[in-house]
Write a structure and sequence with these properties.
Length: about 325
Amino acid sequence: MVALSRRLGALVLTLAVSSFVIFAGMYAAPGDPLTFLIKNPEDRTPDRVAAVRAAYHLDDSFLHQYALWAKGVLQGDLGTSFVYKQPVADLMITRLPVTLTLVAMAALLFVVIGVLLGVVSALKRGTTLDAAITGITTFLTSIPNFVVALVLVSVFAVQLGWFEVSGSGDGFLGRIYHLTLPAIALAIGAFAVVSRVTRQTMVEQQSLEHVDVARSFGLPRRKIIWRHVLRNSLGPVLTMCGLIVASMLAGTVVIESVFGLSGVGSMLVDSINAHDFPVVQAVLLYMVIAYMAVTIFVDLLYPLIDPRTLERRDAA
């Protein structure tokens, strides 16, 4: 119970510090927000300028502006976009489904393929198949996402015409179809990492004493692999998968830009270019919260896979 309280306290503190840093970064950004709020110089009359500065609290101190913004965030009010003149929360709601669907599809791909390749590589250790899988996954981890995305677009969208070049599609099936290629591009490097982690942990588990004892009792190899090797290897694999998903939620910018997707990542790029500070703040805060949410979920799921973790926490 004490450990849980400390964990929650640390998360709240992390979120508070992150929000302060995000707001401070936008506050210190070069340029007067007034120039982005009133783009036409002819409209910058004294009354108009005074009204805008009062509406956005531009004349208030930094701490007062941060307090107002933080209070609004806690109430679900992320501010109003300088460019779209709409609530930022509404803009986020329209963009989040694309990003979340993209990450979910990529996660499904890299978990299934990565774990499967890792298991096969570990079981075939020292063979040509193991060398091939290790070589391919090592090569894939060295290729940047944007290079993979450009190659996939060139081959499967432009030359073969199997997929659309850009857009997120309409309806469930349309969205799945349009996001298949981006999800593959996002997942390729990830499943290579998961494969290598799975292989390494399984190789380590096979050399432990309890596995040798199971062999000495004459247990079938299939049961030994399932009960004593793979099951005990899932902890590190789960942790790695969680970290990858968390990084994906905060790092779809490149993939969304290449494939022309209207997600949170592309909105961040557009907002930075347009100096739309409220949107930038909201997206960065979303990335922090998404990362924290995934890590919390992994922490809660870990004891279900390895009950010894829960026992150690209780003992502490």
